[in-house]
Amino acid sequence: MTTRTSLTTVTFKDSFVIDPFKETHPAGTYKVEIDEELIPGLSFQAYKRNLTIIYIPVQGKPDVLRALTVDAKELERALKRDEIGEKYNSPREKEA
User: Fold this and answer.
1) Suppose 58 and one of 5, 22, 52, 64 were both cysteines; which one would form an S-S bond, judging by CB atoms 3.0 to 4.6 Å apart?
2) Cα distances (angstroms) measured from residue 89 to each of 2, 22, 71, 80
3) How far apart are the first and last CA of the chain?
4) Residue 92: what pLDDT?
5) Of 15, 6, 1, 18, which Cα lies nearest the Cα of 76?
């Protein structure tokens, strides 16, 4: 199966949280790696995203990065919250 990998960056203006990880990360620019697989059997080329990784610096060790596998939709939600200035609330906090 044909796989392609792309690298990009995302920038958060404020501290953020990405589900299911509940830790807060500082504002900044982060590297993101996206792996996609070619969908076979179509009359045109189309890819399905199968892996999204965000690289987070280890606190106190800026040269050391943690690779967190995240759901692409959760990353998009975190970016949207940041864009509109909304703080993260867990689903339990929203119910209360």
Assistant:
1) 64
2) 38, 10, 17, 13
3) 46
4) 44
5) 18
Predicted local distance difference test score (pLDDT) of residue 68: 95
Number of domains in the chain: 1
Core vs surface per residue 32-68: b (16+ CB within 10 A) or e? bebebeeeeeeeeeeeeeeebbbebeeeeeeeeeeeb
**How far from chain centre, in Å, is Cα 85?**
18
Domain assignment of residue 82, given as a range: 3-95
Would you give the DSSP letter of residue 29?
Answer: E
Q: What distance in Å separates the CA atoms of residue 92 and residue 70, rounded to the nearest whole number?
A: 20
Query: According to the model, what pLDDT value does residue 90 have?
Result: 54
- Cα separations (Å) of 65 from 17, 22, 57? 17, 18, 4
pLDDT of res. 19: 84
